[in-house]
Amino acid sequence: MWRPSVQTVQPGEIVALELVAVGPSDRSASIAAIDVVLAWDEHRLEYIGLDNNGPYAWLIAGLLPDRDGLNTNLADGVAFYTALARFDADAIVDGAGVLVATFRFRALVRTVATRVAVEPAGGPNSRTVVFGRESPIQDISGQFGNAVIRIGTPGDCTNDHAVGSADFGGLQSCFTGPVGPVDPPAYPIALPSCCPAFDFDIDGDIDLFDLSAFVNSTDQPNGATVETRHVAQHAFPE
To answer: Are 31 and 144 part of one and the same domain?
Structure first.
C-alpha cells in the first residue's frame, strides 16, 4: 500500500510516496521477497527516484534489470520494483505496516487527480507478489492500493489556488466536447499546462460534465463566484 493514500501538491513540487508492506492484523509475517509493478500517468507525473529508507536493510532492492524491460525506460509510466531479504535477518511485517521504500515524482501539470497504482502484472515475467519465508515459499500477497495525487486546485487556471471568473476563459479555450475517454488527452495544445485542471473526470477531454463540475465548485470554499455561473450559462446555453 501507499502512504499517504491521498495528497495535494502544486505543479513543479515533489510527490513523496511511501511503499508500505502490511502484514496480518493478528500476527507477524516474515518476507523473503517483494515484487511490485507500479504505474503512473507520465503526462502528469515524472519519476525522479527512490530511497530504500525503511528500517530493514534489504540484501538488494530497487528497479533492477527485468526480463520484460519495464525498467528500461522509466519515462513511460511503468516500473518494476524488487526487494530481496537477507539470509541472516528476517524481514518482519505486522498489521501496522513496515516502510519498504519511498518513491519520488515531480508533479507536471494541474489535474483534478492522478494515481500511482500497484498493478497485478506488467508482463509475462513481471507481477506484483509478496513471498513469505516459510518453507515451502508461499505467495502471501494481500490487497494492493493506489495513491491519489491532486495537482493544483481543480478548475484553477490562474494559479491563485481559487476558482473564479478569471479561470472560465481558460475552460472555454480548453473545451473539446465529449471525445473521451482518450489517452493521450485531447486538450488543445494552446494551453497544455492549464487544460488538465478542468478535466474533473480525468477522461482526457473537457466536456459538459467538466463544465458542470466547474460551476458546482462555486459552492465550495474559495470556489468560483456567482458571476462565473452566469458566464457559464451564457457561454454554454442548454
So the answer is: yes
CA–CA separation, 53 and 220 (whole Å): 39
Tell me which residue range forms the domain holding 199. 165-235
Q: Is the pLDDT of residue 231 over 70?
A: no
At 56-86, the pLDDT tens digits run 999 999 999 999 999 999 999 999 999 999 9
For the entire predicted model, the pTM comes to 0.72
Query: How is residue 187 written as a grid cell?
Result: 486538450
Torsion of CA 108, 114, 118, 120, to 10 degrees: -120
| CATH code: domain of residue 69 | 2.60.40.680
pLDDT (tens digit per residue) in 132-163: 887 656 777 777 788 989 888 888 888 777 78
Contact 47, 105 (CB under 8 A): yes
Q: Are 81 and 38 in contact (CB under 8 A)?
A: yes
Burial of 69 (0-12, 13-18, 19+ CB in 10 A): middle
Any domain includes 210: yes
- Within 10 angstroms of residue 144's Cβ, the number of other Cβ atoms is 16
Last residue in a domain, options 151, 178, 205: 151
Q: How far apart are CA 126 and CA 2, in angstroms?
A: 20
Q: Is residue 157 part of a domain?
A: no
